[in-house]
């Protein structure tokens, strides 16, 4: 048993040590989703305060992307991607590094879609920053998942 009172084995980990950025797979997934959602909701509120409408027009139809869209488009991709990486890492821990790259590049690449849509300036800026928050959260969450797995594999 380690000095933090947690145990690890080569096959599983029950480690929850946010001070060293080490989380078990389920904790990493949950912390990443929450860790991206909360700032994104704050950014949405700041965007509203700055005059953003978070509405766009497509084929003559106006659609709002907030707050439901902010919640869904933050949480669902994170849950899907992180869960997939966690499941694959059960057999191949090295998958986490490529998942970090993909998890950073996809939200950053989709900023282009936000810019191309006809959002007002405040909404475009807020939504773009939300994509950056997701990229950072996913990389941090996957790294927090990877560290105890590597420690267990090397033990």
UniProtKB/TrEMBL annotation:
- Supply the source organism for this entry: Rhodococcus wratislaviensis NBRC 100605
**What InterPro entries does the record tag this protein with?**
DUF6069 (IPR045713)
| Entry keyword set | Membrane, Transmembrane, Transmembrane helix
One Pfam family assigned to this protein is DUF6069
Q: Which residues cross the membrane?
A: 27-50, 70-94, 101-119, 125-142
Give the superkingdom in one word.
Bacteria
> In its UniProt entry, what is this protein called?
Uncharacterized protein
The root-end lineage is: Bacteria, Bacillati, Actinomycetota, Actinomycetes, Mycobacteriales
Does Membrane count among this protein's keywords?
yes
């Amino acid at each position: 048993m380690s000095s933090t009172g947690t145990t690890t084995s080569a096959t599983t980990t029950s480690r929850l040590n946010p001070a060293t950025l080490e989380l078990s797979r389920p904790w990493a997934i949950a912390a990443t989703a929450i860790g991206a959602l909360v700032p994104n909701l704050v950014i949405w509120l700041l965007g509203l305060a700055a005059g953003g409408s978070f509405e766009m027009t497509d084929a003559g139809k106006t659609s709002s992307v907030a707050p439901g869209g902010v919640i869904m488009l933050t949480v669902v991709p994170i849950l899907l991607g992180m869960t997939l990486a966690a499941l694959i890492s059960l057999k191949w821990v090295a998958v986490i590094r490529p998942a970090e790259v993909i998890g950073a590049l996809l939200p950053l690449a989709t900023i282009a879609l936000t810019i191309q849509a006809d959002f007002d300036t405040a909404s475009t800026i807020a939504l773009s920053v939300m994509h950056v928050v997701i990229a950072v959260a996913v990389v941090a969450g996957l790294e927090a998942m990877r560290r105890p797995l590597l420690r267990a594999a090397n033990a």
